[in-house]
Amino acid sequence: MGFSVGIVGLPNVGKSTLFNALSAQQAEAANYAFCTIDPNVGVVPVPDARLDKLVALYKPTSVLPATVNFVDIAGLVRGAAQGEGKGNAFLSHIRDVDAVVHVVRCFDDDNVVHVEGKVDPLADLATIETELALKDLETLQKRLDRSRRAAKGGAVKEKAEGDILEALIAHLDGGGVVDAAVQAKLEAAPLCRELGLLTAKPAFYVANVDEAQLSEPGPHVKALQDLARSRDAECIVICAAIEAEIMQLPPEERADFLESLSLDRSGLEQVIQVGYRVLDLETYFTAGPKEVRAWTIPKGTLAPQAAGKIHSDFERGFIRAEVCHWEDLVTLGSEAAVKAAGKLGSEGKAYTVRDGDVIHFRFNV
C-alpha cells in the first residue's frame, strides 16, 4: 500500500479536472457547485524510473509499483463546518487521508463561475482553512468536555490532556493551524492523530493556472507561493486543463508534449513527489524473476518493520536482510556481480532501510 492524498478546495477551482488528470478517472467535472457529492477515489501507480530499470533487468512475470490514492473531496463552502453544502459529510472524508492538497484557483475566466464572485486565492484558501479549523474546534471542545469531567474525579492523565486541548483550542481560535511545529511544541502529536484533526494533516498547495501562466506566473500565483514559503510549505503550479490533455495522449507521446510546453515533469509526478516529501516517505524494492515490487515506508524504518510491510510473518520471524542499492544492481547487471563486488550487505534488526534499497528478507516462523 502507498498513501492517500485528499484534494480539497472551493467548488469550481478545478479539483475534479485535476483529479481526472492525475488518476485517469472520469469524475464528474461541471460548472456548478457540488457536482461531486461522494468522494471519488483513484488508485494511481507511482511513476518510478528505478522500478522500470529493475523490470528491464529481471523481466519479471509480475510488476507491482507503489500506489497513491487520490481522493477528490467535494467542494467546501463558507459554513461547511455547520453543514452548509453538505459540509459535515465532506469534512469527514478528509479525516481518512494522509495528506491534503489545497487546489487554489489562480486563473481568471468569466465562463467559469466563482462561488465567492471573484478570484482571490488567499481568500479562497482562508475560507477552506477556517472551515477545517471550525470543525477541529468542535472536535477538540467535545474531547475537552469529556476530559474535564474525568479530571474532576481525580484522573491525572485526563488533567494533562485537558491542558493540551485548551492550548490547541486557543491556538486555533487565534487563527493558527495545528501543524507539525505546533504539535511538537505542545506535545500534542499522539492526541492529534487520535482525534484526526483536519488542520494537523500535512498539507501542500496546487496553484491551478491557465496555460500562459505555466511559463509566466501571474500575481495570483505569486501571492500563493509567498504564503506557502511563509509556512515552509510547498506550492506546485499546474494547469489542470493541460494535465487532462496529457492523460489523453498515448504514453509514448507525453514526453514530447511536456517538452513543447517547457515542462520537465507532469503534474502527477510533481504531486506524488511532494506527497512523499511532506509525509517523509521513501521506497524500497523487492526484485526477482517472478516479481519486481516497490514498497512505500516512512523514512527511518528498521529492516524488520520494512519486512512487515510484506507480511507480518516476515517481521515476526525476521533473521536478516540481504541488501544492495538499486543503482549498483542495475549497473553491475546481476545479484552475483553485486555480491562479487562486495556491494551486497547482510543486515540485522538494527538496519535502517534507505530509499532505493533492493532487499531480500530471510525469516523463519
Describe the structure.
With 365 residues, the protein is of the alpha/beta class. It contains 15 helices and 12 strands. Helices cover 44% and strands 19% of the residues. The strands form 3 sheets. The chain has a 6-stranded mixed sheet, with helices on both faces. The protein is flat.
Mean pLDDT: 86
The total beta strand count reads 12
**Could you list the spans in which at least 5 consecutive residues all have pLDDT below 50?**
25-37, 83-87
Helix coverage percent: 40-55%
Strand order across the biggest sheet? 2-4-1-5-6-7
Short description:
With 365 residues, the chain is an alpha/beta fold.
Keywords:
six-stranded mixed beta sheet, 365 residues, flat, alpha/beta
Question: What's the structural blueprint in terms of helices and strands?
Answer:
Layout: E1 3-8, H1 15-23, E2 40-45, H2 49-58, E3 62-64, E4 67-72, H3 87-94, E5 99-105, H4 121-152, H5 156-173, H6 180-186, H7 189-195, E6 203-208, H8 219-230, E7 235-238, H9 240-248, H10 251-260, H11 267-278, E8 281-287, E9 291-298, H12 303-310, H13 312-316, E10 318-325, H14 326-332, H15 335-340, E11 345-347, E12 357-363
Parallel strand pairs: 1-4, 1-5, 3-9, 5-6, 6-7
Antiparallel strand pairs: 2-4, 8-9, 10-11, 10-12
